[in-house]
Amino acid sequence: MSEVEKRLAALEAQVAALVERVGGGADGPATPPEGAFWALDGLKQRLPADDDHPGAVLYTGTVHVAGQRYDWQYGRAVDDLLADGWAELPAALSALAHPVRLRLLREILGGRQGTGELAGIEELGTTGQLHHHLRQLTAAGWLRSAGRGRYAIPAERVVPLLAILTAAGR
């Protein structure tokens, strides 16, 4: 067997192992294991059995970071989501669309909540830039002042923030 054939065989074995691990292949995706969609199954049980019902969206999480526990869930009917005005959403979303602000949120969620601690992180820029980003996140509701130069992510925003990051591919 030539070197190329050996390498090709090794690659084929790796691909086969990956397909086996994630499920799927030539016959399509594998059937998920029993109970894999327990949250989705619970949501479906709460909806009308009518096939014309547009459905609902649910996100939930239990998070334990920096000595804090956040248990949260939120659900909305699709009709309500589509009927709501979306004009206020760009401000909340654009506040997250900056690498320094995302880094700030990660640091604050991880327990570094004081401006002195945050100012020590070189990648966050000057003190003036740091305060600018903190103001942007606070105005958009992603942060709140916790007194004396300290910031916290409001408890009701922790799971939604992580859900947004998950949806964005994080």
TrEMBL record:
Database matches in InterPro entries: ArsR-like_HTH (IPR011991), WH-like_DNA-bd_sf (IPR036388), WH_DNA-bd_sf (IPR036390)
Protein name in the entry: Transcriptional regulator
Species name: Micromonospora sonchi
